[in-house]
């Protein structure tokens, strides 16, 4: 058997996406994970690819925009190769506007988006229509963001796995060649053990899915709650952000409260049964940005971590820049995303 050109540790969204980008370039790739694919934070239910607001522009927002704009063609290629649908759709997003001050701010952001989103998407202020798939808005106005997209996380991972298998990517075995570590919060803990400063931490999240086929609808974002109508006949909601917990994969009263908030925000969910519950720990770097690049003091080892809440949206471009770095020696990683930025 030929020795792989690249070994990737971790079969979550970062690991599998990088494996796909590398395999697309003809590399021989091996993926190693101590558990099954998607066993960590990537195996959730929500899949909200929601952009940052169009203001106070910075490197992180520029990178996210580029990744969201390339997502359709990127996921289409995954589906075409492996034959499985990641349930990706750029459906946009609706956000209620609570008061007159926020209404004025939303209108300012409309102008910002025309420039910052490069004419590729819009941040509109529209009147509420009162239909079943709209959050209540105290002002009678909503933000309509046309950049937001969504996918079903488990369907997306399954689509990636099928595409990687079609490309001949190996799973399991011994590591060979350059190694990329994309192992979530465990990786942040490993980095912290070797440094005097905390490099990041895990944040527990809980989510749920209702059995309701709402068709293709925009995301709803209200008071930090995401509501996503998936193409598999479910509506996902999430998530909590918990710094302290006893069991990382158990759900509790915090999720029940989230379910009630979702039903209050969108009454069409009132009679829908809850068909799935999920909890897991998501990796958040110290800077809250993705952490990418060479592993200090480990020649030939690289890190792809810190996808807290933005992992699926950032994954297409992160995969390409990591493949650039490891396979071609081309460093396109923003300074703010480097491992040294967290030291």
From TrEMBL:
The keyword Oxidoreductase applies. GO terms for cellular component: cytoplasm. Keywords: Oxidoreductase, Plasmid. PANTHER family: GLYCINE OXIDASE, SARCOSINE DEHYDROGENASE-RELATED. This is FAD-dependent oxidoreductase. It comes from Pseudorhodobacter turbinis. It holds the Pfam family DAO. The keyword Nuclease does not apply. GO terms for molecular function: oxidoreductase activity. Gene3D superfamilies: D-Amino Acid Oxidase, subunit A, domain 2, FAD/NAD(P)-binding domain. It comes from the Bacteria. Residues 5-325 form the FAD dependent oxidoreductase domain.
């Amino acid at each position: 058997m030929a020795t792989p050109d690249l070994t990737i540790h971790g079969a979550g969204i970062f690991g599998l996406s990088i494996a796909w980008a590398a395999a697309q370039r003809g590399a021989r790739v091996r993926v190693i994970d101590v558990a099954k694919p998607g066993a960590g934070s990537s195996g959730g239910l929500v899949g909200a690819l929601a952009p940052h607001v169009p203001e106070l522009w910075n490197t992180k927002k520029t990178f996210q925009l580029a990744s969201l704009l390339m997502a359709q063609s990127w996921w289409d290629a995954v589906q075409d190769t492996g034959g499985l649908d990641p349930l990706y759709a750029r459906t946009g997003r609706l956000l209620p506007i609570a008061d007159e001050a926020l209404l004025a701010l939303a209108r300012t952001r409309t102008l910002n988006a025309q420039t910052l989103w490069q004419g590729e998407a819009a941040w509109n202020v529209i009147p509420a229509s009162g239909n079943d798939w709209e959050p209540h808005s105290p002002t009678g106005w909503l933000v309509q963001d046309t950049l937001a997209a969504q996918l079903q996380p488990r369907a997306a991972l399954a689509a990636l796995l099928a595409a990687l298998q079609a490309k001949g990517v190996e799973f399991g075995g011994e590591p060979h060649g350059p190694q990329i570590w994309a192992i979530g919060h465990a990786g942040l803990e490993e980095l912290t053990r070797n440094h005097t400063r905390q490099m990041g931490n895990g944040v527990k999240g809980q989510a749920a899915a209702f059995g309701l086929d709402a068709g293709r609808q925009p995301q709803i974002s209200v008071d930090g709650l995401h509501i996503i109508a998936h193409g598999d006949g479910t509506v996902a909601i999430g998530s909590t952000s918990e710094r302290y917990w006893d069991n990382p994969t158990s759900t509790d009263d915090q999720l029940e409260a989230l379910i009630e908030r979702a039903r209050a925000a969108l009454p069409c969910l009132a009679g829908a049964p809850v068909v799935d519950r999920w909890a897991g720990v998501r990796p958040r770097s110290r800077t809250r940005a993705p952490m990418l690049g060479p592993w200090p003091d480990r020649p030939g080892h690289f890190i792809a971590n810190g996808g807290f809440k933005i992992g699926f949206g950032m994954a297409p471009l992160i995969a390409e820049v990591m493949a650039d770095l490891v396979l071609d020696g081309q460093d396109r990683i923003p300074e703010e995303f480097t491992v040294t930025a967290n030291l």
